[in-house]
Automatic annotation (TrEMBL):
InterPro entries tied to this protein: HAD-like_hydrolase_sf (IPR050155), HAD-like_sf (IPR036412), HAD-SF_hydro_IA (IPR006439), HAD_sf (IPR023214)
The protein's name in its UniProt record: Uncharacterized protein
Domain of life of the organism encoding this protein: Eukaryota
SUPFAM superfamilies: HAD-like (SSF56784)
GO biological process, alphabetically ordered: DNA repair
Lineage: Eukaryota, Sar, Stramenopiles, Ochrophyta, Chrysophyceae
Record-linked Pfam families: Hydrolase
GO molecular function, one term: phosphoglycolate phosphatase activity
Length: 113
């Protein structure tokens, strides 16, 4: 039975990342060593290739078997260049257009209210 490794990766400080996961009620699904904050990848950070490569290396996964849920097109671009599958999280209730449609493997609209 294959298990998924859930990873949180943010350019925010670790304390903020942990509080956000707790607020969302999903903290229990992320092992401590699978929560990556800006201080874990410095001097690089998203969208720099080195930051993503460091997270992949530490977690022990390859880009082709990885999916990134992301709300930033610059991070979507960086993931795609590495071969990471992507899901664009966007606030637009319609279908994404242009670059977003071309780069993302999928798009998931959210209602910010």
């Amino acid at each position: 039975e294959a298990k998924m490794k859930l990873v949180a990766f943010t350019n925010a400080p670790r304390a903020y990342a942990i509080r956000s996961l707790e607020y969302l009620g999903i903290r229990e699904y992320f092992a401590d060593d699978h929560v990556f904050a800006v201080e874990d990848v410095l001097p690089a950070c998203k969208p720099e290739r080195a930051a993503f490569e460091q997270v992949l290396r530490v977690v022990g996964v390859v880009p082709e078997r990885t999916v990134m849920f992301e709300d930033s097109m610059k991070n979507i671009r960086a993931c795609r260049e590495l071969g990471i599958h992507t899901v664009l999280i966007h606030e637009d209730k319609g279908d994404p257009t242009g670059e977003a449609k071309l780069l993302g493997d999928a798009a998931l609209p959210i209602d910010p209210s």
